[in-house]
Amino acid sequence: MNLEERLLKLERENRRLRKYFFVLALLVLAPLFASPIWIANATNSPKSINVDEITTKNLSIVNQEGKVVATLTADDKGGSLAVFNNQGKAGADLFVTDNGGILGIYNNQDKRVVALVAGDKGGGLGIANNQEEVMAGLAVFDDGCNLTIFNNKKAVAKLSATDGFPTLKLSDKNGFFSIIGSTDLVKPQTGETKKTSAASITLFDNEKNVIWQAPSQESSEDAIKQIASEYFRLIQNDNFDDAAKLFHYPPEYTKQELANDLRAVSSVLKLFKQEFGQIQAAKISSNPDLYYSIGEEGGNVPYWQKHPTSYELTFEVNFEKEGPGYIVIDFCNINNKLEIRIVNYGLPASRPDSKNRIMDVEQKIMKMKKEK
């Protein structure tokens, strides 16, 4: 249930709550800790008594004129508290639902214009107009939050952040919209999904087709292809240390941790060259066959769980020692910098011994890392 639906539900809960606002002006009330309370009797002369406990399903608090200014009510959901001004107009109410608590604040037109909502996924804040239509909402979830502005009951502006990817979406009544920041784009030719960086702007028509983008998808693809080409060049020339520098490493690394990871990646790239041989006849493949693969990357699993892959490029190659195979390079765009996340070397699954050969290379990598 989204924030707008929660607030519409809140309005229905309010109507339910108001059924219980009958007057109990002569009922004796007692707060906790047996502190003194005042009772208005028939002659309006105040009296003070001490009690330890009062048990009731409904109670009301009245002012000196006998008007109800607060009610405490029990219903099938739990407890409800409502506060009124001296003219009998609602000021605030607090009640519970199956998902959590709701606090509503009213204006002098007896309209709920602010609501604070607590749910099983987090908290929310809604601000409404005098028609009690939500105009702005803030919602917080386990993995992010969003701030939404509504007009004519539709979201027209939304600022959100999830898993470290911020997005600002602006929409009009005709269905056109723009996104500043991260979004997922699908390449029609291949079906591949790419996540744009925070430093991007994308415009869509009312059928969700991209009509303009900066930087353009083509320029990003060109940059990725250049990195891949540089990787191949360095590997062919046995320059494994510089090839390892094309990879992304966690920015929180210390100098020593970075040096260690660079050295480890360089060593694995060298072993790949020894096992597979020179890379020959590399060409981009949009529909590769099934294959078994072994890869190398910087960082660790927890780090990459926070940073999903943004783009994958698959190359059909001919290995000098192993024959036909694949090299799959995953790229990331963290801190607005395109880098290699992981490189995978693969052999076709149609080859009878491909799985065993890949497992053999994997065992050699594990042995090498253990020795170091």
Please give the number of β-strands: 23
Mean pLDDT: 82
* Shape verdict: elongated
Intertermini distance: 52 Å
Radius of gyration: 32 Å
Unreliable residue runs: 1-12, 15-43
Compressed to H and E, one letter per element, the order equals HEEEEEEEEEEEEEEEEEEHHHEEHEEEH
In short:
The chain is α+β, with helices and mostly antiparallel strands. The protein has six helices and 23 strands. Strands 3-4-5-6-7-8-9-10-11-12-13-14-17-18 form a 14-stranded antiparallel beta sheet, covered by helices on one side.
Q: Can you characterise this structure?
A:
With about 375 residues, the chain is α+β, with helices and mostly antiparallel strands. β10 (about 135-140) and β11 form a beta hairpin. The protein is built from 6 helices and 23 strands. The chain has 3 domains: about 5-145, Outer Surface Protein A, domain 3; about 165-215, no CATH class; about 220-370, Nuclear Transport Factor 2, Chain: A (Roll).
Annotate the secondary structure layout:
Layout: H1 3-18, E1 37-40, E2 46-49, E3 58-62, E4 68-75, E5 78-84, E6 90-96, E7 101-106, E8 112-118, E9 123-128, E10 134-141, E11 144-151, E12 154-162, E13 165-171, E14 177-181, E15 184-186, E16 193-195, E17 201-204, E18 210-214, H2 217-236, H3 240-244, H4 255-276, E19 279-284, E20 291-297, H5 301-305, E21 311-319, E22 323-334, E23 337-348, H6 354-371
Antiparallel strand pairs: 1-2, 3-4, 4-5, 5-6, 6-7, 7-8, 8-9, 9-10, 10-11, 11-12, 12-13, 13-14, 14-17, 15-16, 17-18, 19-21, 20-23, 21-22, 22-23
